[in-house]
Write a structure and sequence with these properties.
Elements (H helix, E strand, L loop, with lengths): L5 E5 L12 E2 L9 E2 L3 E4 L10 E8 L14 E5 L11 E4 L3 E4 L2 E4 L11 E2 L10 E3 L7 H9 L4 E5 L3 E7 L3 E2 L10 E2 L2 H11 L3 E7 L3 H14 L2 E5 L10 H7 L3 E5 L3 E2 L5 E5 L2 E6 L3 H19 L8 E4 L4 E2 L5 E10 L5 E5 L16 E5 L5 E2 L4 E6 L2
Parallel strand pairs: 5-6, 13-16, 13-17, 14-15, 17-21, 19-24
Antiparallel strand pairs: 1-12, 2-11, 3-10, 4-6, 4-7, 5-9, 8-9, 18-20, 20-21, 22-28, 23-27, 24-25, 24-26, 26-28
Helix pairs in contact: 2-5, 3-4
Length: 385
């Protein structure tokens, strides 16, 4: 895959992008000994037994410089959650474990407090200079929060890929237009565009009928202005499967045409001037599976995203494998007897049975074997985006 360019964006615009620089801690985390609950800060050594009496010497709110605990024994400072631990104190006793009368408290603990109780120690999460986020991380809420916590206001991220999406076929009618009995309403572009935009892409979508001249012109236009081109339909072996020849005329070089899998066997892939071109089959299930299995990982690679490990899930029931083809079968994740996740297969009627995908969580990969794979077989599982 080619590598996409980069943008430097403020944090509020970087969500969903892929990080293209490391983020380093500018100071220890937490940056001070932080109080983790409301109560009273004191020296554990001053509480020799399970019951001891202390004089309250002040109140330490969050966001204020630390007070100092008097050096003489028998003093404490009331503290709020998130406050810095007062100088001289080494533990916190919660409100629930004391009795208070005016400015004095009596400990009512089952055990004497110990140093470190209810204190989030300075630097115990990460030291200054530690690697917090690695280049290739997908930026979601938690990653952006980490960046903000070490003072970052902007980040270097991958540019949004520009994707040209070409949907082909005379049989496709616009969703809101009158539809003839021999036509289908167009849906592939809706499904693919939604997923691609959710993945951070800028999508330019076109529909063209089975006319070689118009299809070639539209294809040339998208190749000119896109980082990736994705087509649906027109890549199989039929008389009107025009795209392989038109792609060749447009200067695209085929890397492969056809994959030993079902659905999605006619998949075409090539490069045009360094731009990846994916020719997806026209059947909705085929195109949706191929989008997830090939196009989305390719986009992640081009953006510099760290590869996601494949998840393996045991099958609920035995399944018959194909002798030659890898099978991609939609599945629902259910809870097994031991409490773990298992995959219950939901085979589609055909690769045109788009409605069968609605209640599924993703699809499993059944390797070619020619025999029956038992219940409990660990199959690669890929979730729908």
């Amino acid at each position: 895959m080619p590598r996409l360019g980069t943008d430097r964006l403020p944090l509020d615009l970087a969500r969903g992008r892929v990080l293209r620089e490391d983020v380093i801690a500018d100071r220890p985390l937490p940056p001070f000994d932080r109080v983790t609950l409301d109560g009273y800060a004191l020296r554990a050594a001053d509480a020799a037994g399970a019951s001891a009496e202390f004089t309250i010497s002040g109140f330490q709110p969050a966001g204020h410089p630390p007070l100092s605990l008097p050096a003489s024994p028998g003093h404490c400072i009331e503290v709020a959650t998130g406050a810095v631990l007062p100088d001289g104190a080494d533990c916190v006793v919660p409100y629930e474990k004391v009795e208070r009368a005016d400015n004095r408290v009596i400990l009512r603990c089952a055990e004497a407090p110990r140093p470190g109780d209810a204190v989030h120690a300075r630097g115990s999460d990460r030291q200054a200079g530690s690697l917090l986020l690695r280049s290739g991380a997908r930026l979601r809420g938690r990653e952006l929060a980490v960046a903000a916590s070490c003072g970052r206001t902007d980040l270097l991220v991958s540019s949004r890929p520009r994707i040209g999406l070409l949907v082909t076929g005379d049989e496709l009618a616009d969703p809101g237009a009158p539809v003839m009995p021999w036509q289908q309403r167009r849906s592939n572009d809706v499904a693919l565009r939604s997923v691609l935009e959710a993945a951070g892409a800028e999508v330019r979508c076109r529909h063209v009928g089975d006319d070689a001249t118009k299809m070639g012109a539209m294809l040339a236009e998208l190749l000119e202005v896109s980082d990736f081109v994705v087509t649906t339909g027109g890549v199989s072996k039929g008389r009107l499967d025009l795209l392989p020849d038109l792609l060749s005329r447009a200067g695209a070089t085929s890397r492969f045409h056809g994959v030993a899998q079902r659905p999605g066997k006619p998949l075409w892939f090539g490069l045009s001037g360094g731009r990846p071109v994916f020719g997806l089959p026209g059947n909705p299930v085929s195109s949706f599976v191929c989008l997830h299995r090939y196009v989305l990982p390719a986009l992640g690679c081009a953006a510099g995203a760290a590869a996601r490990p494949v998840d393996f899930v045991p099958l609920v029931e035995p399944v018959r494998s194909d002798r030659v083809l890898t099978l991609y079968v939609p599945a629902v994740l259910v809870r097994g007897g031991s409490g773990g996740r298992m995959a219950r297969l939901v085979p589609t009627n055909t690769s045109g049975d788009l409605t069968a995908l609605v209640d599924t969580d993703g699809f499993v990969e059944i390797p070619p074997d020619g025999g029956s794979l038992p219940a409990g077989f660990l199959a690669p599982f890929r979730p729908w985006a």
